[in-house]
Amino acid sequence: MAATSVIGTGGMLLPVVNAAANEPRAAGAELDPAGIAKFTQRMPLAPVLQPYLTTSTTSYYRMTLKEASKEVVPGLTTKLRTFNGSFPGPVIKAESGRRVVVKQTNALDVPTSIHLHGAHVPQDSDGSPMDLIAAKGGSKTYTYPNTQPHANLWFHDHAHHMESENVFRGMTGTYILTDDTERRLGLPSGSYDIPVSLRDARFTDTGELVYEMGDFRHRNVILANGKAWPYFEVAARKYRLRFTNTANQRFFGLSLADGSEIVQIGTDGGLLSAPYRTDTVSISPGERADVVIDFSRYPVGTTIELRNKHVDRDEPANEIGAVLQFRVTRSARDDSVVPTQLRTLPPLPTATVDRSIDMRMDETGAPSSMAYINGKTYDMNRIDTEIAYGATEIWTVHNANQYAPHNFHMHLVQFRVLERNGQAVTEGPETGLKDTVPLKPGETVKIQATFTGYRGTYVYHCHLFDHGAMGMMANMRIS
């Protein structure tokens, strides 16, 4: 294990693995992000995947995991690991109550395991870290029952010790689950409902990605839907933007450059009960933010930047602080609305079990640095938490580090955040259904979940991918 160093991430210090001595560097000189022209590339829309077969109950899809080369930085070609050769990855549009079956064939030189993040699925389709699809021709079929309500899901590689690099090199996609509750509201839809995947990256001057585990100090190129600092043309009307933080470690605090209102309508597990009006939307790695921005307040011809407020004092603000540019290019009719009431969240059952989860990683700089949950590194053969099927539990999750932020992700279930640092959560995005929650150094959150639907072994872990790879992951068995 390589040594750690202390660096910044989103306004918080983070010790990370510095694997420069152990990981091969990409050939070529480092690309200086300051030399990349911003807002010269159009932000692409992620392609919507079409089923090859539909029945009365099920839609069937095929995907191939393969290398592809794309223009990410203007004028340069980058080799990526992708779903179907697409970057950004494809979108699957699913409906609650209707099954989706996806056959994944792995044409890459590395094993993979595809996890549908935020989904309520049987164990054999969860994409657990050791349930691998073999390299160079292996395949696996995943079945997603979609028995949960609407949600903003995404899929990514989860092969243990490989997920960090596989995701960094492009293996992410979007899965939008909808239902009648969402459809009837009259929110912006169709071409005005846009998934946006955000992340950071690092390149050589030939366009090759530079991957070093834990190193995002030099990942100072911000990508939106697979392009470095793109622009996106909009009409002077309301847009629904579904942001997913697909970065390995970077936190985003999204705001408009003029400080205008952003209306957050949803989070990981779908819509909030009511819109939350704010000027900044924060998402840690793995989290989603579903927002509405009304561009009718700007005259046609206006350009407005989406900025990132989570910039440390020692980071290049001109690079890390920029995300994408909106260009208001036309007027358009707008019949969409943002209702004052979006949904009724299910009542919280009475919890019968309380647990404590301690998240910690070594901050000494020693070459053997590891990361732990309750003092243990991940062991695929060890069951860390036994849960009775149908139980409702409260977990108190604590970040024991002095410098390192973490976040906490549970497979199988959506949970509710009850408290943060001893204070009840009564407003904002954490009042909704969540599967990933951030914790700054020293913070504690209290969450509640009900473990029903499927029995089996699932993981919970830090969703800063490198922390999970360093051991910050554990098994829970529902039986």
UniProtKB/TrEMBL annotation:
What positions does the domain Plastocyanin-like occupy?
75-180, 236-297, 366-477
Q: Which Pfam families match?
A: Cu-oxidase (PF00394), Cu-oxidase_2 (PF07731), Cu-oxidase_3 (PF07732)
Q: What SUPFAM superfamilies does the database record attribute to this sequence?
A: Cupredoxins (SSF49503)
Q: Which UniProt keywords apply?
A: Capsid protein, Metal-binding, Oxidoreductase, Virion
* Gene3D superfamilies assigned to the protein according to its UniProt record, in alphabetical order: Cupredoxins - blue copper proteins
Which family is it part of? Belongs to the multicopper oxidase family.
Q: What is this protein called?
A: Spore coat protein A
